[in-house]
Amino acid sequence: MMHAHSHYPDGRPAALKRMTATDQGVVLRHGDGPGGCDQDGARDVWVYVADGVYYMHYDGAGPHGWLACLARSTDLATWEKLGPVLTLGAPGDPDAKSASYGVTYCDGGDWHMFYLGTPNVSDPINRIPAFPYLTLKARGAGPAGPWTKQPGVVPFTIKPETYYSITTSPGMVIQSGDEYLQFFSATTTKTDSPYVQRTLGIARTTDLDGAWRIDPSPIAPIEEQIENASLYYEPANATWFLFTNHIGLDDNEYTDAIWVYWSQDLNCWHPADKAVVLDGANCSWSRRCIGLPSVVQADKRLAIFYDAPSGDSTSHMRRDVGLAWLDLPLTPP
């Protein structure tokens, strides 16, 4: 079994502890979505719950590009696919080539979606979203939409000479006091590495339909090589657990594990306080590559959704969605 490395060729930090999840396996397979919406893959999952029903946004690799698609479940294991909830933007729009990874937030009455848009994708066969990844906004009539894009709302965007010079893609929103925090994904470069540097930052606002201000420093060093955030608060020990994707390296870069960081302060995270949750050692069907996590509480367990290409593949395409579990309460290892 392959497993997350204790060291990497370029010296990027490793997670030396484990908080090992129990893998259930694949719960949503690509290929049979309405209109061929996920004919070439299903990945980049966002799972949320409303009125006892679970909803999943996932990126369906369809005939025209990657779009956020919706599936619905009452048991987390069987999912009804409902097709795309976003459309591609017009030529020249920031989401002209992909409108994907739909992160939702309900402020009590209104439903908000922060989604990933990009005007750039790879070859016309796979249409894999390419930099820049941008955060765009839509509003929903309910948890299942329909969603109306808000092109006049620019939550935040890339900025030269910062840790978010290449990407600012969406992440989980948490209300903290009188403001909202969004744990977004940031990418930049550094002169001594051929690889882009990935980390998470916090953006803040008091108006979900307004602009956000980005913290001047990320929550972890850019060398950590993490992207995409899903958080769970454990009341038993007043601790936040932030689940994220790690990008590893052997012959090339690919997502090799789900990591978790923990802190009792949303605004202060220590890079040493982290562990591997899911990688090739404990995933039952994908030995090398594990995609981004989305966590949701289900009774006395935490469900961790992720995507993977199966076997020894590290491909971005033909991925399926898996489910793993951690018992509650969570405690740092």
Structure description:
The model has no long low-confidence stretch (mean pLDDT 96). The strands form 4 sheets. Strands 3, 4, 5, 6, 7, 8, 9 and 10 form an 8-stranded mixed beta sheet that branches. The protein is mainly β and 333 residues long. The two termini are 22 Å apart. It contains no helices and 22 strands. It is globular.
Provide the β-strand percentage band: over 45%
Supply the helix-strand structural class: mainly beta
Oligomerization: single chain
Radius of gyration: 18 Å
Helix content: under 10%
Q: Major sheet, described briefly?
A: 8 strands, mixed
Q: In terms of topology, how is this protein built?
A:
Elements: E1 17-18, E2 22-28, E3 42-50, E4 53-62, E5 65-73, E6 80-84, E7 98-106, E8 111-118, E9 134-140, E10 147-149, E11 167-169, E12 173-176, E13 179-188, E14 197-205, E15 213-214, E16 226-234, E17 239-249, E18 253-263, E19 274-278, E20 294-298, E21 301-308, E22 320-327
Key terms for this structure?
46% strand; 333 residues; 5-stranded mixed β-sheet; single chain; globular; 8-stranded mixed β-sheet; mainly beta
Task: Please summarize what this structure is.
0% of the residues lie in helices and 46% in strands. The chain has strands at 17-18, 22-28, 42-50, 53-62, 65-73, 80-84, 98-106, 111-118, 134-140, 147-149, 167-169, 173-176, 179-188, 197-205, 213-214, 226-234, 239-249, 253-263, 274-278, 294-298, 301-308, 320-327.
